[in-house]
Each structure stands twice: as structure tokens, then as C-alpha cells.
């Protein structure tokens, strides 16, 4: 069963359709599936719903899919770094479903774990709770949130073996595992592909069962906020 | 006279005890890390890290290592990384002892608003709603009034809420207040601020 | 004439396609692994492992490496380990293509009973209820009749259920049956078994 | 903040009380907190409710706590290896709440993640569903299962650093992370304690935030079913 493909376009071949729900990994610009996003821009599919914590920035990451207006709706927790997003949203061109960050991550994990709904205290008494079922456990109010079952997951890992077993690096892990889990099909881009046996089985972050197709590519890995400190004189 | 940003951060750092796992929000809360001294505090970054270190030296930035404010940071010997579902599992599960957050408005019943201004500012709540719902203690650090001089410590919030009845303690440039039965209780006034000045700058009921 | 345990396992192995992730139950299902041939099949052990290898050589047993039947096993180059919550997440989430399980009783509507005999045998369902609820295809492999010669392929289960309407295909010593609208459909008879013999040994409606 | 204690008894000091709910890691005899179980036997506390996938075997693991009749109720998925358990259960001395294995693991994880309830298809139409709330999602029936919030979690890891960051070995991981997460207090026993920095931060299975107290000890690690194959003549 070959999972390794040559290019992002090849890996996505036959998987894309208008109106589909895509879950994307990444936090800010960290750990985003750059190459797969570019290939989706190239494909021209439209009316997408995208579940992703952020919406990229103007001209990079999901920001590109916003510029081409291929996205109909975003499910996100924070979109503050994207002027084009703001413009489309305020003008009514784009739908936006705000999800608290933890609720979004848990909804993805739940979808992947066959859990259609769970209760959380997050958002009780706020706009987020409007229209949602409330239930009392131990005298406290909780709201029902539903699992996300995406048609396609696009994620980015550091290394994977050819069976799709993947490891992530530092905070680039973020939403990638839950996004991968909630996709009916998951396509992953990595910086390095190795043979089975080269990764320690105890250290796999995402088992290959969650990964259907795999590409290796060059990543820009743009930094959003470059903050540094000065070396003290020695 | 009143506390400046660094003095507010220093005061907030006094809330932290040895062994605590703590989440610091963006802005003044970030400065709290500079004032923990010898206390054994582990900082969580909700994008998937415990044991957040300082900013990197120039040239040592790593695109794969950022905090929840998307800033480049470093790791410590004690650091561990995990995914976002696990990260917010520990937040919702009450494992984080305290969150120190900024705010646009706080009300006397502990309501907190810090995520949007309808029609104007639509950035999103990020992890703030999860934090205020889940962590052991929510400490707000903010200026007592906005740039127009209006109190941000209110009877009721006017902006969409981040959490209902979630704030435990408010630290502002004018002093420290606790959310208690019936309103706010003055814990202390900032250097050179009188209780009268603090009361005058506060719309919330002070009990 | 009929199939023996190994022939049943060999027949069950034909259900598996290249690239599948599969969970094998205890007993005859375990033998299926011997008959997958060149097919690229990855076996899950629901206690937290994908890529289960064969039993270890004598002296190479590892107490930290067991399967769901608590037997010592080995790992493969493709192996990954994870915790029980993740393991059953992938089961409930439909990531496992097929489970091949033993049974005490199967009914014509796909009901399955394989976890307890009230008052007699109280071992528990282990992971069986999760497997039958979550995996893509549930294949039961069992003897067609019990040791008293009574059919285990029934109109209705008499024992407490493991799952309701969950079985897709039944492979017994007498043949292969599919659960379809209205009852069971004979797919094939075992070597030397006539359709009449198969029908006679079956209490379920055959359509 | 010192997490490292000398002995199991010292690590449990002040944490034990009659009638408490204890979540225990382990699957069969693999990855069980042997030393902490022994110390609880020694403590004499009683009327315990224990959430653990299995109940040990006669004379080892949780089987010891059954022999001393310190356990009032078990929450388990499989107890087939324990004759004393069966005897106490059939005679009505012991309560038993059967949980499907995945439901038990998820209930622990949920408790640890602040989720008081979630819906699952596991057990629908069976005894397990009796008395549980049913909800329809997308035309399918699901039942409500509740998070487990344990007073104490006892778990076993392979290695940990002094801040409690822990890694597990092979299938000994099993229920240990979810059990650790659902405890108000978690005490962990390990085979080796190292200094912070010796474990790769990307490879921590259980962050130290979940671990309150820690001991190193010698483990018997008994094997339940020793199965081997013969070396072919070469």
C-alpha cells in the first residue's frame, strides 16, 4: 500500500471537490501544511469550509485561499493577523464560526475518536453558548459541542516513515494530530521521509493509520513574530 | 501616582506560588515572567508547551518554537511539547493553577470581556474562553481605565463575554481587588493611590 | 467434512485487502495472521499498538510488550505504541478497517453475543463492544454449533449482547454467511458441506 | 517543588482515605503500579472504588487489594483472570461496574480533560446502555458516558525526570496516561528517575503537570501469558 506521493498535487488527486470540509493543522504560521494549501489554491475548488485555528496571514498559508475566495466558511478561534479575512468577513462575503481554541481542538479529536458530542464548560454564559444544548453535571452548567468529521485533513509533520508514522517538532505539533484524526482522508506533508524502523515506535506522535497519503517537500516555515533578546556582554 | 506596567506585573507575580503551572496572556501578563524570582514556576503556552523559556538570542530563532502570541521563544530543561487537544485538556481539566490575563472589561460579578468589540474588532477568543473556564484561579491584569478615562471595572460588562463569573482577582494600575459576594473588595491600593481615588475610578460596587 | 480451525482462519484471511489495519480477536481469529501471505496488513492490538509481530523467541519475552490477550509478542519496523484512550479513539473513529472476532451467538439481524453467560461466566467485554461499534467491518469466525450441537447462528441472541446489528459476515466451519436485509445469505459452503447441511445447522432465517 | 519521594508509603502519605475513588494504570499485569498497590494494601484503607481495566490476578497487582477486601467496587472491562474476584462478585461481596474498555479509557481521559460527559456508540443496544441517556446524531443512536474524576491516580511509567515528565515503554503505556490525567492527585512509580533535560521534550508521553509525586523502585513485572515461538534450525 503505497502512501508516498511525488507532489502535493499528486497527493490530492481525486480527493478534492467543491463545498468540502477541510481540517487543517497549524497554529499561526507554525506547522501549517504550506504545500498542500498551495496545491488547493492551484486546484481551483471552491465553497470550502475550513476548520483551522487561524486563517494564515495575507499572502501566506490559508491567507492565499482567502484571496482567491475559495473559502466560504472558516471555523477558527483567532483570525486577527489577516486583513483580507477581516474585510471579507465584515462585508459578509465570508462566514465565520468562532470556536474557543480548546473547543476546536477537542471537536477535531472527538470527530477522529468517533465521539459525536461532548460537554464543556468553555463558553458557558457567552455568545458561544447560544443555541447549544445545556446540561448540568454536579450542579454546574456545561454546553454540548459536536465532533468535527472532515472530508479531508491536511497536516504537516517533521518526519514520517513510509507507512505514515509521524513525528512533529516542538510547538509545530499543535493542531496537526487532532486535524489528522478527524479527516476521512488525511494527506500529510513532511520535511523528511524515512524507512520503517528508523523512528522509535515509542516516540511516534501520530500512528500511520491516520495518514493516507504523504509527500516530502521544502518548507518556507515563515516566522510571524520574530522576538529575540540581546546577548549579555561577556 | 500609580503602578506602571512593570509594577503591575511584579504585583501579579506575588500571586504565584512555588510549584505552580501558570498561563500568562499577551501584553502586561507576559511581563509577569520577569518577576517570579526564585519561585519554581512552570509556564504553559497553550499552543502546546509546558516550560516556556525566554526569547531566543538573535540568529537562534526557530520557526517551530513559538508561544501563543506567535513570538519566537526557547525551551528549558523541563520542557515538554504536546498537541492542542492535550494542551486544552490540561486547561479545561483544571491542571493549570492560574491564568494571568488582560481584559477590556471586568464586572463586579466576575464577568470578563476581552475578545471582541462588535463591528470593530473581530479577532477571536483564541484560548481565552478555555482558560477562564478551566484554570484554578483567574487573575486579570489591566489598566483601571481605558484611553478615554472610562472605568474598565464595571457593574456589568457591555462587551461580549469571555466568561461568566470567572475572575477571582483584578490587578490594575490603581490597586488590587477581589471578586466576592456582592461586589468587589479592595485588597490593596497601588503606591500613592488612595482608596478614594480607587473607588472613584471604579463603577463596580465595592463592598 | 467441514473446515477446521486453520481452514476457517485461512478463509477469513481472504477478507483482508492490502493496506488494511485490522484487529484480530482471541482464539481462531488470532490464527488469521498466519494466512495473510504477501498482503500488507497491519494488526492492531487494542492495548496500545499498531504493527503487532509474532511471538518472541524463547528468552526474548518482554513484560512490557503484550497483546490484548496478555500474550508476549514482538514489534515490527512499522510498529507504533500509544495509550488506551488513543487506541480506542482509532477504533471508535472507524480507522480500523475490520475486526475478526469469535462469538458465542450471532443472530440474523447482526446481533452479536460474546462477552458473558449470566450467572456462570463473568469475565467482561474487554474491548469487544468498542470494536463492534467502531470498526469498518465485523467478521465473526466461530464453530457453527456449540459443544452440545446447538446452532450458534440464531434468529435472536439469547445471551447479553455485545453489539446490536453489528455483524457483517459470519465464517464458520460449515461456510460463510452475510447479514442482509431479512436474514442471512449463504455466500459459500465449506469444503464437503452441502447447502442443506448448512441450512439444517442454522436457526437463523436464510434468505 | 519536590516531587520525588523515597518510598511508595511516603509518596502516599496524607493522600489516602476510606471510600476514595482510585484510578489505576495498567493492562493485565503490564504497566501496573505494583509498588503503590502494595503500599495501599499496607495502609489498610478500605471501601475503595477502583477504576482499572483489570483486577490483577490472585496474589499480584490489584488481586492483593481484593484478597484483603479493601475494595468495595471495581470499574473494569475485563476481570477474567482473577478467581477471588469472581468469588467475591458472585457472592455479592464486591460491586462491579463493567465498562467497555474504550469507554473506560475515554472516561478517564475525559475526566482529566474537564469533560463531564461524552456520547459514544459503544454499547448501544446492550446492557451497558441501560439507564443511560440516549441522543441521536446524524440519525444514529449514541449513549452518554460520564468522565471519571478520581480522588487519586496511581500509575507506572518507565522513566521520569524530577519534574514528573514521564515516558512509557511499549505496551506498558496503556491506561497509565488517561488514569494519571483523571486523578486530582497522581502518584507515579518509575524504573528510573533522571534530571530535567535528559528526556527529549518532544518525546514526553505524560507532562509533569499531571504528576504530583514520584518514586523509583524495583518492579517484578510479572508476565501473565508467556508465549514464544521456536527458532528455526539454521
UniProtKB/TrEMBL annotation, chains A, D:
InterPro entries: 3-oxoacid_CoA-transf_A (IPR012792), CoA_trans_fam_I (IPR004165), CoA_transf_BS (IPR004163), NagB/RpiA_transferase-like (IPR037171). Its EC number is 2.8.3.5. GO terms for molecular function: succinyl-CoA:3-oxo-acid CoA-transferase activity. The keyword Transferase applies. The keyword DNA-binding does not apply. Keywords: Transferase. SUPFAM superfamilies: NagB/RpiA/CoA transferase-like. Gene3D superfamilies: Glutaconate Coenzyme A-transferase. It comes from the Bacteria. It holds the Pfam family CoA_trans. SMART domains: CoA_trans. Belongs to the 3-oxoacid CoA-transferase subunit A family. This is Putative succinyl-CoA:3-ketoacid coenzyme A transferase subunit A. It comes from Tropicibacter naphthalenivorans. The gene is scoA.
TrEMBL record, chains B, C:
PANTHER family: KETOACID-COENZYME A TRANSFERASE, SUCCINYL-COA:3-KETOACID COENZYME A TRANSFERASE SUBUNIT B-RELATED. This is Putative succinyl-CoA:3-ketoacid coenzyme A transferase subunit B. The keyword Ribonucleoprotein does not apply. SMART domains: CoA_trans. It comes from Tropicibacter naphthalenivorans. Belongs to the 3-oxoacid CoA-transferase subunit B family. InterPro entries: 3-oxoacid_CoA-transf_B, CoA_trans_fam_I, NagB/RpiA_transferase-like. Its EC number is 2.8.3.5. Keywords: Transferase.
Amino acid at each position: 500500500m503505497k502512501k508516498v506521493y511525488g507532489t502535493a498535487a499528486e497527493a490530492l488527486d481525486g480527493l478534492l471537490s467543491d463545498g468540502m470540509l477541510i481540517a487543517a493543522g497549524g497554529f499561526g504560521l507554525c506547522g501549517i501544511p504550506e504545500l498542500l494549501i498551495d496545491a488547493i489554491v492551484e486546484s481551483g475548488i471552491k465553497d470550502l469550509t475550513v476548520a483551522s485555528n487561524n486563517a494564515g496571514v495575507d499572502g501566506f498559508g490559508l491567507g492565499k485561499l482567502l484571496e482567491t475566495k475559495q473559502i466560504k466558511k472558516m471555523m477558527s478561534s483567532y483570525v486577527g493577523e489577516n486583513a483580507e479575512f477581516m474585510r471579507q468577513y465584515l462585508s459578509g462575503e465570508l462566514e465565520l464560526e468562532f470556536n474557543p481554541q480548546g473547543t476546536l481542538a477537542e471537536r477535531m479529536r472527538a470527530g477522529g475518536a468517533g465521539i459525536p458530542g461532548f460537554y464543556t464548560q468553555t463558553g458557558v454564559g457567552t455568545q458561544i453558548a447560544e443555541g447549544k444544548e445545556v446540561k448540568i453535571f454536579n450542579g454546574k452548567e456545561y454546553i454540548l459541542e459536536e465532533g468535527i468529521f472532515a472530508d479531508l485533513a491536511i497536516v504537516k509533520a517533521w518526519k514520517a516513515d513510509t507507512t505514515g508514522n509521524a513525528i512533529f517538532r516542538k510547538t509545530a505539533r499543535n493542531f496537526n494530530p487532532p486535524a489528522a484524526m478527524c479527516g476521512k482522508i488525511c494527506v500529510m506533508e513532511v520535511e523528511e521521509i524515512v524507512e520503517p524502523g528508523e523512528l522509535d515506535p515509542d516516540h511516534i506522535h501520530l500512528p500511520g493509520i491516520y495518514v493516507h497519503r504523504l509527500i516530502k517537500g521544502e518548507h518556507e516555515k515563515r516566522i510571524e513574530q520574530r522576538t529575540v533578546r540581546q546577548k549579555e556582554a561577556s | 501616582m500609580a503602578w506602571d506596567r512593570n509594577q503591575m506585573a511584579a504585583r501579579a507575580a506575588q500571586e504565584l506560588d512555588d510549584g505552580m503551572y501558570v498561563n500568562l496572556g499577551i501584553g502586561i501578563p507576559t511581563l509577569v515572567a520577569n518577576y517570579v524570582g526564585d519561585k519554581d514556576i512552570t509556564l504553559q503556552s497553550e499552543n502546546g508547551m509546558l516550560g516556556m523559556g525566554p526569547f531566543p538570542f538573535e540568529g537562534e530563532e526557530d520557526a517551530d518554537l513559538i508561544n501563543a502570541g506567535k513570538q519566537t521563544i526557547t525551551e528549558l530543561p523541563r520542557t515538554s511539547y504536546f498537541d492542542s487537544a492535550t494542551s486544552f485538556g490540561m486547561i479545561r481539566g483544571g491542571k493549570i493553577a492560574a491564568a494571568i490575563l488582560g481584559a477590556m472589561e471586568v464586572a463586579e460579578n466576575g464577568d470578563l470581556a476581552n475578545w471582541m468589540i462588535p463591528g470593530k474588532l473581530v479577532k477571536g477568543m483564541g484560548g481565552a474562553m478555555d482558560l477562564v473556564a478551566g484554570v484554578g484561579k483567574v487573575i486579570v491584569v489591566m489598566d483601571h481605565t481605558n484611553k478615554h478615562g472610562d472605568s474598565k471595572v464595571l457593574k456589568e460588562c457591555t462587551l461580549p463575554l469571555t466568561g461568566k463569573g470567572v475572575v477571582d482577582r483584578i490587578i490594575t494600575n490603581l490597586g488590587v481587588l477581589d471578586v466576592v459576594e456582592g461586589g468587589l473588595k479592595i485588597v490593596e491600593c497601588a503606591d500613592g493611590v488612595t482608596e478614594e481615588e480607587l473607588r472613584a475610578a471604579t463603577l463596580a460596587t465595592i463592598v
